[in-house]
Amino acid sequence: MGKTSNQKLTALIRRDAQRFESLKQEVMQLAYFCKGTVLKRMMKCGNQQCACHRDPAHRHGPYFECTYKVHNKTVNLKLYPEVTPLYRAATQQHRKLKSLLTRLERHSRVALAHLAKQKLANTT
Ligand SMILES: [Zn+2]
Questions:
Q1: How much distance in Å is there from the Cα of 42 to the middle of ligand 1?
Q2: Domain that holds residue 88
Q3: HEC-encoded secondary structure of 7-71
Q4: How far is the CA of 53 from the centre of ligand 1 (A)?
């Protein structure tokens, strides 16, 4: 490998490391996270004579729950309205974590390819 392309590669490797570090910083800043979606539900009650059984507009609620899957089974965690924002924020943090992991892996692949190229250039 020529001197110029070697310097270019060194610059790329330095940039890779900086990007990886800044993504890691974002991971460090995450708050509590949980998988799932916070849903608002309107429910029918047990009384067959109640208006909720005839008219969806008369259903009771809203009731909130956090649903997520564990081993392909859906889990519904009932939430008091007061704590709903807490769980909504946590599910957003979880989505952010997943997106960061995807980006970390993508950057890692690029960085590894650059490192491998440099290693091969130095041994031949
Ligand atoms: Zn009812």
A1: 10
A2: 3-123
A3: HHHHHHHHHHHHHHHHHHHHHHCCCCCCCCEEEEEEECCCCCCCHHHCCHHHCEEEEEEEEEEEC
A4: 7
